Amino acid sequence: xxxxxxxxxxxxxxxxxxxxxxxxxxxxxxxxxxxxxxxxxxxxxxxxxxxxxxxxxxxxxxxxxxxxxxxxxxxxxxxxxxxxxxxxxxxxxxxxxxxxxxxxxxxxxxxxxxxxxxxxxxxxxxxxxxxxxxxxxxxxxxxxxxxxxxxxxxxxxxxxxxxxxxxxxxxxxxxxxxxxxxxxxxxxxxxxxxxxxxxxxxxxxxxxxxxxxxxxxxxxxxxxxxxxxxxxxxxxxxxxxxxxxxxxxxxxxxxxxxxxxxxxxxxxxxxxxxxxxxxxxxxxxxxxxxxxxxxxxxxxxxxxxxxxxxx
Length: 311
What we know:
single chain, alpha/beta
C-alpha cells in the first residue's frame, strides 16, 4: 500500500478535454492507481461508463477498490496491454468510446516499489515487468542477449550515445557470475563510461534502464498499435488524450495524429473544418505542465500532452 500514491500529471489540462453535460463512455487505457480516473469520473453524468485498462494486476485491484464508491457510473476493468485491449473490448460488444486517455510509461508506484526493479535509485532484482506474470525480465536480457542484441536495446530503444563499452563490460562481468541487481548494473555502467559522460547532468544509467524497460515490456510496439486502435475506436466527437514522457514517445503520437488528420495543428478553441477522414488535432502545439505543477510534482516535468478529436 505504501507504493500506491500517485499524483496524476497535467490533471487540469486533461479534465478540460472531458466532454461535458452528456453521458459518455470513458476508456482509460492506463488506469494505474486511478489518479486521473477518480477526478474524471466525478465529471461524468449518471449512467456514464468507465472502462479501466492496465497490464499491472496490482494497479487494477487497487483502482477497482478506489473507484467502487462511485455508483453513478458503470465500471468495467480489463487486465490487458495497449495492443490487445481494444480488440478484446470489440469482441465483448463495446463498439467505441467518447473519451480515451493514455498516460504512457511507468507509474510512480512502479518506480517507487524497489521490488519491481524499475529504478536505478534502489538496489533490487533486475525485473522491470509491468505485468509480473510476463516471462522475460531485465535480468534475462542482460544475461542472455548477445552483443548485437544488447547494442540494439541500448542504441535504438535507450537512445544511448555511448553504449558499446557498457555492452562489452556486461559481457565480461556476466562470464564471472550472473548480473542480478539494479545496483550491479549501475556499477557496470559507471565503470564502463568515460569520465566526461559521468560528469554530464542526469544519472548515467537513465537511458540504459529506459532501453531495458522498453525491451522487457515491448512498449514501443505496444504504443504504436495502441494509438492506432484508440484512434479508430473513437465515437463521433470522441477525444483521445495522450500524455507521453520523452521525445521518442511523443514523436509516435505526433506522427499518428498527423497521419490520420492530414492537417496543420489547430487551436483547441478555434473553429476548424475536419479532414475527409473526420479527425482533427485539438492542440496547436503539445501542452506541457506549468511551472507551478513542476514545483509541486517534479515527475510532471517531462510530460507532453496531445489531443485528437473525431468528427
